[in-house]
Specification:
mainly alpha, 434 Repressor (Amino-terminal Domain), globular, XRE family transcriptional regulator, Cro/C1-type_HTH, Lambda_DNA-bd_dom_sf
Length: 68
């Protein structure tokens, strides 16, 4: 099993760019890119909180999925 971050899909659904999310959250563009592309081996909890707040996401399961 592995964790998958759905941030790229969510941004597409909302018509938002990674750059816009970076500007709104204060998270470095490189970090946003790595999260979107599932290239991170660890995820900063504060980053997920900022992203969820910015996107109006109430349930972290909308961003993070555990897949087989």
């Amino acid at each position: 099993m592995h964790l998958t971050i759905r941030l790229s899909e969510i941004l597409k659904e909302r018509g938002m760019t990674q750059k816009q999310l970076s500007e709104l959250t204060g998270i470095r563009p490189a970090a946003i890119s790595e999260i979107c592309n599932n290239q991170r081996t660890s995820i900063n909890r504060e980053h997920i909180e900022k992203i969820a707040e910015c996107l109006g996401i109430q349930d972290v399961r909308d961003i993070i999925r555990l897949e087989k």
